[in-house]
Amino acid sequence: MSVKLVREGEEYxxxxxxxxxxxxxxxxxxxxxxxxxxxxxxxAAGLCLSLPPDASGARHSAGSAGxxxxxxxxxxxxxxxxxxxxxxxxxxxxxxxxxxxxGFGRWAEAHLLALTQHYALTAPLLGGAKAAxxxxxxxxxxxxxxxxxxxxxxxxxxxxxAREVGxxxxxxxxxxxxxxxETPMGFHRRLRLEAARAELRRGLSVTETSxxxxxxxxxxxxxxxxxxxxxxxxxxPRGG
Length: 240
Known about the structure:
This protein is an alpha+beta fold. About 50% of the residues lie in helices and about 20% in strands. Strands 1, 2, 3, 4 and 5 form a five-stranded antiparallel β-sheet that branches. α4 crosses α6 (about 170-180). It is globular, with a radius of gyration of 19 Å. About 30% of the residues are buried. The model has no long low-confidence stretch (mean pLDDT about 80). Pfam families: HTH_18. It comes from Parvularcula maris.
């Protein structure tokens, strides 16, 4: 079983008939015997963690979790992803010890086992006559989550996200909400507004923040911000 983190740039993988784009911040978990072809765009940086296939029970759940063709999720959504990001950052900065801490492999195996069991149990709840169908739907919804996070700087339509992950807009909306407890567009809106708040608190003006996050106008941004946070962006504390 392999875990791939992309920290900077973009990477592309072909796993059997499936083609995956991994932007910065993406984590891919893979358990497959199929040929894997990879590539990068511009410069990319990341980490790859390989675990013995028989080191834990994760392999037994991987098939039902749909990881044979690569399961893509946001690194920040998992403790393993956050830990790998920290290791990668230390290596890129050349500071500290970038080697794996003692016992990290066993901890990673336990974490992967918990993830595989979670998604293996989630997949049947999303419909489909076969378990593989539910697993594929979870995989595509998770990939959509990565795509939305990577495009938080602009407006995105559900049809675009659905096209990116290869399902109908209706199926994506249904599966995404069932798997993550919010709609794809609700998730994307929350990420954009949380990013906007961070920019404002760093001292960016309302106009600059609106433009940087791709809102159609300052007025539209102000309405969305007030509806989400309960106050207009102009009242957000600056420089904190």
